[in-house]
């Protein structure tokens, strides 16, 4: 299999004069970008960073971030991107854990880098007016790397650090062949054509952002950098560059629909929608389908560890379904207490989703974390920690995380199907369901609602009673909030809701309890 450097060369050779990268006033064709990438690769080598060593990068989605990603692939250096909002202690941990030889940063991440003791012990490559030991401009002015071809598909391409919401972040090393297989699958499963154009908004420290970057190179496409999410600017980019495909988390689609001027915006060039990172509510699915009328609407379910678990290329066909295993993957659902991958859950029985580690996109184990490997890797299968079930047609439904499961009165209750019912109420803008400690029930089901129009607990309870939601899953409390807390990539942070870490909407009836 080709390594990723040679993969990029394919596009340079096929389409040297095609626009490849946009970031504000920066416009680069494939040939122009390739020259810059080789100079940056040469500059990294001149700093003494060798093949197989790690480069920690703490940048927003700017052209330099995308350039560094490709430069590392050419030089055999392991790209190790980190959230630009990372705190000093997170930097300390990741610099030390990865054994990074250098850190790249910009003004927005400079305070954390300067406050990190571990970062102060390595080379610090600074952008703009940030202070470091070397400037990024020095890399741009370096001699272009002469890559002798020693990089192979078996070299490690990057290490992605998981969010670490339930403990220490885990490094996920992925080889060139894993990354290329995942990008090829992304192209195939989203039916991308040559010269597709996408919005580069998903963070390049996240698997979704990396996949968009690689997929566009595979099809000689355009990657339009978005440093910080702004729905109005995203609409402007869609119009200005006639973008053809979007791959976002549900939260960003929600923001896009709510942006001023959305109805009038020129968005007809977008023919393909894809989403991942979190389930999409039935209500949002319907609104997007009406607004864009896409020829393809893909629900993609995956992870950093195994990029694709499953794909549904018609998200409206069976709302809530994550479809079936991707082209590089085998999936099973095993019982929640399973100790073996052979302990299958029955049809419609909620269990834990697991994936075959022999899949072409699957990682081989966590970086320096035998404890995490022991928990998640068993008998050749990756135990995802996600809950779900197969229906009678063989379609997968993802219901949440094992840790998110609400146990109330001895019943296992998943938040996702409750959220789907409530999301369809016309006055509900966003909804999240979580378990809150209760002396009698252990946990009680609480729905946290961000309103679009006036609605109260009694109205929502009636809505649930008139749906097909079984009674024991019906929320016992409704809390109206200003916003639903989410991670930087749009995942609902239920633990914050359970812990009371939210701002209530106090305009009308802030908290109400249903009648039993």
From TrEMBL:
Domain of life: Bacteria
Record has Ligase as a keyword: yes
SUPFAM superfamilies (UniProt xref): Acetyl-CoA synthetase-like
InterPro entries: AMP-bd_C, AMP-bd_C_sf, AMP-binding_CS, AMP-dep_synth/lig_dom, ANL_N_sf
Keywords carried by this UniProt record: Ligase
GO terms of molecular function: medium-chain fatty acid-CoA ligase activity
Residue span(s) of domain AMP-dependent synthetase/ligase: 10-367
One GO term of the biological process aspect: fatty acid metabolic process
Keyword match Ligase: yes
Limits of the AMP-binding enzyme C-terminal domain: 418-491
Pfam family membership, one: AMP-binding_C
PANTHER family in alphabetical order: ACYL-COA SYNTHETASE, MEDIUM-CHAIN ACYL-COA LIGASE ACSF2, MITOCHONDRIAL
Family under the similarity heading: Belongs to the ATP-dependent AMP-binding enzyme family.
Name of the molecule in the record: Feruloyl-CoA synthetase
Annotated organism of origin: Caballeronia sordidicola (Burkholderia sordidicola)
């Amino acid at each position: 299999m080709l390594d990723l450097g040679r993969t990029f060369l394919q596009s340079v050779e096929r389409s040297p004069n095609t626009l490849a990268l946009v970031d504000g006033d920066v416009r680069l064709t494939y040939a122009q970008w390739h020259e810059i990438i080789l100079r940056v690769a040469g500059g990294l080598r001149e700093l003494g960073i060798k093949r197989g060593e790690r480069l920690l990068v703490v940048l927003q989605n700017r052209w330099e971030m995308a350039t560094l990603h490709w430069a590392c692939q050419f030089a055999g250096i392991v790209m190790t991107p980190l959230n630009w909002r990372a705190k000093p202690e997170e930097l300390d941990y990741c610099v030390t854990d990865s054994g990074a030889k250098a850190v790249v940063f910009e003004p927005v991440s400079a305070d954390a880098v300067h406050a990190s003791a571990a970062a102060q012990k390595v080379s610090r490559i600074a952008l703009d007016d940030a202070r470091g030991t070397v400037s990024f401009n020095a890399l741009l002015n370096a001699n272009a790397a002469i890559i002798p071809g020693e990089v192979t598909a078996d070299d490690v391409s990057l290490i992605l650090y998981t969010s670490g919401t339930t403990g220490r972040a885990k490094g996920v090393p992925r080889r060139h062949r894993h990354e290329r297989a995942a990008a090829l699958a992304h192209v195939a499963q989203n039916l991308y054509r040559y010269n597709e154009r996408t919005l580069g908004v998903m963070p390049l420290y996240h698997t979704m952002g990396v996949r968009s970057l690689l997929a566009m190179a595979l099809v000689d496409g355009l990657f339009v950098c978005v440093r910080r999410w702004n729905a109005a600017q995203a609409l402007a980019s869609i119009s200005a560059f006639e973008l053809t495909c979007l791959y976002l988390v549900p939260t960003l689609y929600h923001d896009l629909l709510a942006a001023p001027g959305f109805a009038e915006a020129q968005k007809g060039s977008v023919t393909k929608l894809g989403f991942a990172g979190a389930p999409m509510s039935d209500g949002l699915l319907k609104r997007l389908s009406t607004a864009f009328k896409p020829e393809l609407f893909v629900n993609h379910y995956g992870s950093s560890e195994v990029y694709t678990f499953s794909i549904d290329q018609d998200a409206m066909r069976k709302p809530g379904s994550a479809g079936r295993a991707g082209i590089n993957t085998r999936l099973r659902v095993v019982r929640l207490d399973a100790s073996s991958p052979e302990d299958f859950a029955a049809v419609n029985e909620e269990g834990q989703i697991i994936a075959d580690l022999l899949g072409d996109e699957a990682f081989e184990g966590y970086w320096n974390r035998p404890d995490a490997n022991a928990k998640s890797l068993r008998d050749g299968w990756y135990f995802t920690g996600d809950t779900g079930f197969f229906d009678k047609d063989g379609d997968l439904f993802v219901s949440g995380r094992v840790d998110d499961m609400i146990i109330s009165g001895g019943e296992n209750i998943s938040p996702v199907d409750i959220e789907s019912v409530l999301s369809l109420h016309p006055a509900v803008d966003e909804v999240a369901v979580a378990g809150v400690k209760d002396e009698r029930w252990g946990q009680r089901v609480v729905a946290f609602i961000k309103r679009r129009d006036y609605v109260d607990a009694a109205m929502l309870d009636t809505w649930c009673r008139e749906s097909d939601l079984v009674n024991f899953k019906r929320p016992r409390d409704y809390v109206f909030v200003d916003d639903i807390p989410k991670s930087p990539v749009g995942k609902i942070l239920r633990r914050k809701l359970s812990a009371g870490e939210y701002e209530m909407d106090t305009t009308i009836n802030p908290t109400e309890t249903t009648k039993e």
